[in-house]
């Protein structure tokens, strides 16, 4: 660790930083975190780089601890490069010396310090409260549950939701039960912009800068290349580029191995695991009662942000349907971090999403009015799935259509995506 004087200066600077940081758009997750203040559990906030985790820490500091009765340390600062787990006790002493004996810690990007969980476990036993952020999905893994002996609550922070995007742009969320023509037009316009730009805060704040491309480079080189000690990142970059260019489609690990000449299926699987751990990509399985069948079936891959995807991927056509499906997935993933599948009927028709815990099937289509064949295909797949799984609900999310349909004895709701995204439920 650096000298005592250098660390003192660093801690003072970081304290000023969190007090003066622009709080921006109040994140939806803040309400959930606020309810957990008086619990004995640590709060572990994980998410993509530059998604706003530090800002969220500032928001909760100002809202939950307005008197400043907390410690704040940002381990992303390069001046912590030589810091080790053995230095935590000395750091705690310095924090007490500078800011008094506080019972609450706000630790930013904690994954940079190997063995950090031992210090936190010891302090939790002493009655201290921790809010921890990190840019690696391992912070939410079962392994972490063992490290923190189950005494933590995971919070996933995603790029702005559509509702947060509206707040960022100072657009009032209207009453969806009484939409005027003007309100509907404004929602359609803002949603089209949201689909194109995505919800990464810095990218929206500084559209003139290549924020998303730099973010992608950091993920590949720092979060994956350096973390997993890859000899070269070119194969990983080629795989990620291919997947980002084919979001919302079925992929086979075997075919990816052959197409990109990646040596083995294990290499493909490992690389995709790395991309998931860095929050760039998210993968879902086919629904099956057998875990083995789920594992060997093709996967569907989604990007954490449509704006990031459009900034990096090869756009061979304006495939609005894929982006719509990706956006629907992201809302589902915000609501639940497991139990999201795609579904294949016995006649091999695909339904985009199945949520077994809620018994809901969801199909996504740009439109089911313009093309009779598309309408027939989407309704046929949904009705078959609903026939195979009793007591299920069927929904079709479209770009701008709303109706109730009875098809093959099944009742199916059709909803415009901009309305569905603003509903807090599925």
From TrEMBL:
It comes from Candidatus Shapirobacteria bacterium CG08_land_8_20_14_0_20_39_18. It holds the Pfam family DUF4143. Coiled coil: none annotated. PANTHER family: AAA+ ATPASE DOMAIN-CONTAINING PROTEIN, ATPASE. Residues 42-166 form the AAA domain. This is ATPase. Transmembrane segments: none annotated. It comes from the Bacteria. Gene3D superfamilies: P-loop containing nucleotide triphosphate hydrolases (3.40.50.300). InterPro entries: AAA_14, DUF4143, P-loop_NTPase. The lineage of its organism: Bacteria, Candidatus Shapironibacteriota. Residues 222-362 form the DUF4143 domain.
